[in-house]
Design goal:
Blueprint (H helix, E strand, L loop, with lengths): L2 E2 L4 H5 L3 E8 L3 H13 L1 E2 L7 E9 L2 H11 L3 E4 L18 H12 L4 E6 L5 H7 L3 E4 L4 H8 L5
Parallel strand pairs: 2-4, 2-5, 5-6, 6-7
Antiparallel strand pairs: 1-2, 3-4
Length: about 160
Amino acid sequence: MNRSRGENAEDSAVGLTCVRLLIADDQPRVRQSLEALLTALRWSAPDQPMTLIEIVGKAGDGQHAVDQVHALHPDVVVLDLLTHDSGYGEPGSASGSDGLATIRTIKGRWPAVRVVVLTMYATDRSAVLQAGADAFLLKGCPTRELLDAVMPVAH
C-alpha cells in the first residue's frame, strides 16, 4: 500500500514514502480543508520512514468515490457518510445510506484499500464498522488521530 515517492532522489535518500489518498465528502469546503490539512502534514512512527500524503482525487458522492477508486487506485479513502443515493445499496439492506453502500462496494472490490470514515454522527459507528470500514472517526477529532487512521504503517 505504501508507495515510495521516487520522484525526487533527495526524498529517497531521506526515506520518504507516500500514501495515495482519496477524499469523499459531499461538502466542497470539507474536501478542500481536508486536502490542505493532510498535504501539509507529515507522519512518522518509530523505525518507520517519514510519510507524506498525496491527494489523488476528491469525490462528492458515493458513485464518484467508487469511480475514483477504480481509476486512481488510492491506498486510503477518507469518507464521510454521504447522503446522496448512489445505487450501490443492496436491496433489502438495513441501511439505505450512500456511505455504507459505498464502503461495502469499495471493500468488496478493492479489499486492500483502507477506508477511514470521518463523520459527524457517532451513532453510526457500529454500522460503519460492520460495512467494512477500517476506522471510524468523528469530525473535529485531533489531527493525530486522523493521521494515525490514514497511515497503514500505523496498523
